Each structure stands twice: as structure tokens, then as C-alpha cells.
Amino acid sequence: EEFKTYELLETHKRMLIDGKPYMCDVCGDEFTQCDLLKGHKSIHMGEKLYNCDVCDEKFTYHRNLTRHKRIHDGEKPYKCDVCSSSFYRED
């Protein structure tokens, strides 16, 4: 298997050995990727790293910002099987 960077190779090796090589020093949760750990740690710090460029609402996770932006865009990708109404959230 080939890797684009040395860091990706090292992460791959740690995954093979440890499974989840990145551990939160606050609560002990383990993660497969450094970026996931970084996002998780922001919860403990009370940080919200992702800002909506339309209304300036802030989010801890990028996925929450992405879902939020659907409100501004009018995107409703989830459709009801029964009545065909559309929604911007799956839940």
C-alpha cells in the first residue's frame, strides 16, 4: 500500500498496532485520526471552531455546521416516504 505523506504512513502503522492511536488526555477517549481528537478536545475547552458565514452561529463539529447551512441554502435532502415532504435534517 502506498501513502502520500510520511504522516499518513505513520498513522497507518499506529492503527495496525494500536487500533486507535490518538487518546484524549482529559477523558481517555481514543480516536483513529488526529483531527478527530482535535475536534473532540474542543468540547472540553468549550471551543466552537466552525462558524457560519451567514449568521455567525458557531459549532463544535464541522458536520453540525454543514447541516446548519442547509437552513440558509434551503436544501432539504431528506424526503418522507409517506407524504413526500422534504426536510433539511434526517432526525
UniProtKB/TrEMBL annotation:
Name of the featured protein: C2H2-type domain-containing protein
Gene3D superfamilies for this protein: Classic Zinc Finger
Record-level GO cellular component terms: nucleus
SMART domains reported for this sequence: ZnF_C2H2 (SM00355)
UniProt keyword annotation of Phosphoprotein present: no
Predominant place of localization: nucleus
Top-level taxon in the UniProt lineage: Eukaryota
Domain C2H2-type residue range list: 22-49, 50-77
Subcellular location: Nucleus
UniProt keywords, alphabetically: Metal-binding, Nucleus, Repeat, Zinc, Zinc-finger
InterPro entries per UniProt: Znf_C2H2_sf, Znf_C2H2_type
Annotated GO MF terms: DNA-binding transcription factor activity, RNA polymerase II-specific; zinc ion binding
